[in-house]
Each structure stands twice: as structure tokens, then as C-alpha cells.
Fold:
Amino acid sequence: MTASIFILTGAGISAESGVATFRDAGGLWSKVKLEDVATPEGFLRDPAAVHAFYNARRANLREVEPNAAHYALARLQRDYEGEVTLVTQNIDDLHERAGSRSVIHMHGELSLSLCAHCGARAKAESDLSLTLSCAACGTASSLRPDVVWFGEMPYRMNEIYDRLMDADLFVSIGTSGAVYPAAGFVAEARTAGIRSLELNLEPSDGTFLFDEARHGPASKLVPAFVEAALAS
Ligand code: NAD
Ligand code: APR
Structure:
């Protein structure tokens, strides 16, 4: 029976595509206070500033392309005989644009708006703002980015934990291991006796918990990992 693989990606997998990470030198949280743009309180205080922050990140996405790491994971999903679960903390669409068909965005998606009144999601064709009304319920000024903020629960966690517990191998790519619950997946894997591998530019907060850790750029480490998995 071919081993099943559970993959978690973070901002580091998109870094070489030109998408800013959060906690590296020069990362997003060194430029804006996450309390202001990544918490419900921040959105209540100044929704226009939060919309501007995510509108700028949405515009940046139109300038960047997937990199070799995204394409390698799409190839793994396509050609590997066993089950591959791809969970990302990222809100960009680079996995999908590289050809990944099934991506679980536990922190939401930059490309979607969410109506705070009726919960309807819609494609955010262009900038979101307070001037827009929800197409589903008609409520004015009710749209927010469909992004999970600090203090909010990530999406599809029951499904994520079920899939993690069913895996034979847990691979963490490009994440600092600073934010829970994603940062806790490696400890869950260890407790369940699931092998774990970290592929990251440098040791993360949880490196010591992994059975194996390889450090370097994702654009090099991930294609090599996929090549070996397909040859096994
Ligand atoms: P956490 O406590 O793991 O936070 C990690 C770091 O984020 C903290 O060390 C702190 O520096 C900062 N932080 C967290 N909450 C903050 C807040 N309210 N104000 C200022 N700084 C804060 O993260 P968490 O708060 O336990 O996360 C809770 C939920 O939020 C989790 O479910 C997580 O998935 C989600 N989340 C979403 C995002 C996002 O932007 N999509 C970011 C982080 C967390
Ligand atoms: N290749 C591999 N790893 C890289 C690369 C690269 N080219 N560049 C950076 N990294 C690594 C860094 O070493 C760091 O450990 O990616 C990680 C990025 O960490 P963060 O910036 O903290 O991003 P992430 O772990 O995804 O943050 C988790 O926090 O603020 C929230 O919602 C946000 O989902 C995000 C969550």
C-alpha cells in the first residue's frame, strides 16, 4: 500500500515567487502591525485600512507566478499513487495556478470576499471596499476579505485533523511554526507515530520535533522531495 502524504505549506513556499512572508527580515509584520490588519478588532476599528492592506496583496498576486516548489507539489498530486493532502496557511492562489486541484486553505483565500452579514462568499474580482454590497443578501458595506484572522478559527479543521491522522508522512514546507493550530500539527503527528519531515529555509520554531529537517530554498528542496517520492 503506497504511503499517504499530508503536506502543510506556509508563506515560505511562495517567497521565491515574490510574495512577502510574515516573520522573515522585512516580512509583512515588520511593516504593518498585525493587530491592525489581521484581527477582527482591527477590521472593526478601521475597515478601510484593512481593505487597503489586502487589496495591495491581491494586486501583488497579479504580478507573481508559481515557482518550482508549487509545480512540484502539483506533480506529486497528479502522479503519486498514494493519497496526497495539501493544506496551506497561505491565502494566495499559487498552488492552484501551478495545477494543484485540491488545496485546503485553512486561513482563507485572498481571492474571495465574505459577507459578514449572511456568510456568502464571492470572487473578489477587484478591490474590496465599504462601498460594495453583498450580491447574495444585498447588505451594504458588509464585505470583508475571506481571510481567517488571529483569534478566529481556521477553516475545515475537523477534515484536516482526520487527514493528518490517516497520513504515513507529514511534510511541513515554508512555515515558521509560530502560529497555532498549524504549528501543532508536527506534535500531533509525533504522538500518532507519523513520520515527519521539515523543508524550510532555516530551522523553524518546531524543528526539534521533526524526525528529519532539510534546510534550504523550497524551490530546490521540494522538487527533490517529490522526485524521490515518485521514484519510491
Ligand atoms: P498565535 O497565538 O499562535 O499567534 C502567533 C503570534 O501572532 C503571536 O506570537 C503574536 O505575535 C501574534 N498574535 C496572535 N494573536 C494576536 C492578536 N490578537 N494581536 C496581536 N498579535 C497577535 O495565533 P492565534 O491568535 O492563537 O491564532 C488563533 C487563530 O488565528 C488560529 O486559529 C490561527 O489559525 C488564526 N490565524 C490566522 C491568521 C491569518 O492572518 N490568516 C494569522 C494567525 C492566526
Ligand atoms: N524556501 C523555504 N522556506 C522559506 C523560504 C524559501 N525560499 N523563504 C522563507 N522561508 C521560511 C522562513 O524561514 C520561515 O520559517 O518560511 C517561513 C515563513 O514564516 P512566516 O513568515 O511566519 O509565515 P508562516 O509560517 O506561513 O506564518 C503562519 O501566520 O501571520 C500568520 O496568517 C499568517 O498564515 C500565516 C501564519
Notes: The chain has a mean pLDDT of 96. The beta strands are 5-9, 84-88, 104-105, 108-115, 121-123, 143-147, 169-173, 195-200, 212-215.
